[in-house]
Amino acid sequence: MKLFLTLVLPFTLAAQQPVITALTNNASYTPSPLPGSSIAPGSIFAVFGENLGPRQLVQSGFPLMAELAGTRVLISAGGTELNAYLLYSSSNQLAAVLPSNTPIPPVGNALARVIYNGRTSEPVAFSIARNAPGLFTLNSAGKGPAVLTDAEFNVLTWNRAAQAGQTVIAWGTGLGATTSPDNQPAPVFDPPLAVELLVGGRPATVRYRGRAPGYAGLDQIVFDVPPGVRGCGVSLVLRAGVSLSNFTTIPVAAPGERACSDLNGLTAAELNNVPARGLRTGSITLTRLRSLTRASGLVYETRADSAVASFDQYSAATLLSSLRLGAISFGNCAVQTFRGESANDPAPSTPLDAGPGLTFQGPLGSRTVLRLEPGFYGGWLGESIYQNNILQPGGIPGIPFVGGGLPAFLDPGVYTVGNGTGGLEVGGLLARVTVPTAVEWTNISDINTVSRARDLTIRWTGGNPATDFVTVTGAASRGNVEAVFACTAASGDGQLRVPPEVLALLPATELLEGVPTGSLTVYNSPLREAARFVAPGLDWGILRYQLATTKNVAFE
């Protein structure tokens, strides 16, 4: 028995050692080492991991202490060690305020350790910047609708939107150090700091930017919504000093209207009349992805066709923070960051049963995709590969088929989708959409390297302004973290400008076997009214296409 205890005890102790898996700004959650992932003195940061604190969350009161429920966070920076002030602690997550007197290392990173009940984690490196702003969002994920209030502190949402000229308060953290004690309720503090707030790409008049009085580490930015912006997905980003916050959105309604609306999103009437049980939604997407690769003087083109569908019920509250249902207003951009996770909607929803599968019928035949998990359906529809514009029916050695070897499916024409008799929550549906020709990305050959410090202009021809719109996306990764942007425009605009504020939040591109791993994609999709369908059990349904052209580029 003594031998058994001797062998088991070290493993038990090791299992209880705190483990840090991530340290981020508590508002933006931008993962390191992406741009915008630094922590500013005086700001709130979050630590994620295991065995960081007690099983049940314990919250602090004033004055904030260096130890809470057995948890401490030790910071090593610039040859100095100091304790952060704990806001709350739990086993998997804690939040703390980085003291304003934390040195900013001239070279290299700072280190953080979590100490819980006398056991210390391995150190985790993070960077400190004088200013590192983050804006809070309604879904607590650092992306999508921002936490915004009016002058009476009513929360602004899609169905209680702002108006041009209205004074609004944005909430965040990371503007920088304060002169008052970080562990006490902050007084009014409006530092001599260059701050710019861009609303739909337009500078807003900022009336106050500094600590939120009565709080620790929390900042508020009081601003006037500039004229000429409108929509549910108007971009909102903050620049403090030389640092940018995460990209969020602000809802701006038409004059005299309560709810916002977009031609590619929900209507104002739908947002004003959400059923008490919540909104039951169905989203079906047909995608053709056209990929171009050049090697050894040859041009390889892959056309991969796929379909995905999601059926969900959102409560009235979670609906208003959804990324899946939130559209990017025309002329605006959004940026999202990920650490090894998929782009799932952080707003919780309940999956709906629409039956075992969906069958698509089009000019080239029919395909069926099956339910992969509750409420979610997906699968490949087909694929074709071309070499110098010549179809290669058997494929090309070294370039595998990803579409299961089926021939191409999503050519222009009329498509229907059905689910037979349906499922428990969603009855039989029969949706129809006309898939047009893809827009032609006209300056694709001119863009191989993208400067993250200058505008990027994408040009195209084609598209029907009455039925579809254009989206430009870009993606770049660094290790297991990734940043993705998306910007939208009416298809009749013919071009779209991606501003440097968007590109600056992407990391410089890595190379894989000499090929840059960044990507740009241009695609057209149907407007809301061209893609609607109805089905028993659904309040809102949309069948859309995405006709995309993508290429690898280097972001530098």
Describe the protein in words.
It is a single chain. The radius of gyration is 25 Å and the shape is globular. The protein has 4 helices and 40 strands. The strands form 7 sheets. It has a 15-stranded mixed β-sheet that branches. Helix content is about 5%, strand content about 45%. Strand 16 and strand 17 (about 220-225) form a beta hairpin. It has about 550 residues and is mainly beta. Residues about 1-15 have low confidence and may be disordered. It folds into 3 domains: about 20-125, Immunoglobulin-like; about 135-250, Immunoglobulin-like; about 270-555, no CATH class. The termini are far apart.
Briefly characterize the structure.
This protein is mainly beta.
List keywords for this structure.
single chain; 556 residues; mainly beta; Immunoglobulin-like; five-stranded antiparallel β-sheet; 4 helices; 44% strand; disordered N terminus
Topology overview:
Layout: H1 2-15, E1 19-25, E2 44-50, E3 58-59, E4 71-77, E5 80-83, E6 85-89, E7 93-97, E8 110-116, E9 119-120, E10 124-126, E11 134-135, E12 148-150, E13 167-173, E14 195-199, E15 202-203, E16 205-211, E17 219-224, E18 231-240, E19 243-244, E20 248-252, H2 268-272, E21 279-295, E22 298-314, H3 316-319, E23 333-339, E24 350-351, E25 357-362, E26 365-373, E27 376-387, E28 390-391, E29 413-418, E30 430-435, E31 440-441, E32 449-450, E33 456-461, E34 468-478, E35 481-490, E36 495-498, H4 500-503, E37 511-512, E38 515-516, E39 518-526, E40 540-555
Parallel strand pairs: 21-40, 32-40
Antiparallel strand pairs: 1-2, 2-7, 3-6, 4-5, 4-8, 6-7, 8-9, 8-10, 11-13, 12-13, 13-17, 14-15, 14-18, 16-17, 18-19, 18-20, 21-22, 22-24, 22-27, 23-35, 25-26, 25-29, 26-27, 27-28, 29-30, 31-33, 33-36, 34-35, 34-39, 37-38, 39-40
